[in-house]
Amino acid sequence: MSLALGGTATMSPYISKFVTFRDGYWQTTKTGSGSSRSQLHSRAVWEHFHGSVPDGMRVHHKDGCHEQITDDRLDNLMLLTEEWNIRFMPTLAKGFDVPEALVTQAYIQTESLPYVERFMAVCKLLAEKRYHETYFGAKNVGAAGRTLSHQQE
């Protein structure tokens, strides 16, 4: 099936909808109220299983990847504020020169902290990780599922 907006449609492995890869993301069509619009597949998967995404929140890929349809599996998705998803995650990954998945792991480790304390706590975890890599020679850091704490490596 070919879509007018480009790409070849394939069936989602998670929800009963066709999806296509456009602009770097898997997308599907959301219909309602007599109209239809493009929707990110990851958001459609989240909403199918958890309900609507609250205002001000975004669906985030824990492993930092969204190029494969299987990256949109439910256990790889989480909600983040727009500020964390759009601003902090990519900025911290670039600033600390680490994969976004590592920033996400640090965020998950600090989720129990009040929101205003999380940014500094994530920075501290990432800085400790960089220090450990620099002075103790850790290699291949950043694979999904690795912990940030060098005591647990």
Plain-language structure description:
- The structure is a single chain.
- The chain is α+β, with helices and mostly antiparallel strands and 153 residues long.
- The chain has helices spanning 41-50, 82-95, 100-109, 115-136; strands at residues 10-11, 18-22, 25-32, 35-40, 57-61, 77-81.
- Strands 1-2-3-4 form a 4-stranded antiparallel beta sheet.
- A hairpin with a 2-residue loop joins strand 3 (25-32) and strand 4 (35-40).
Summarize the structure.
This protein is 37% helix and 20% strand. It has 153 residues and is α+β, with helices and mostly antiparallel strands. The chain has one domain.
> H/E element string?
EEEEHEEHHH
Overall number of domains: 1
Rounded average pLDDT = 81
Based on CA atoms alone, the radius of gyration comes out at 18 Å
Structural class: alpha+beta
Properties at a glance:
153 residues; alpha+beta; 6 strands; 37% helix; 20% strand; disordered N terminus; disordered C terminus
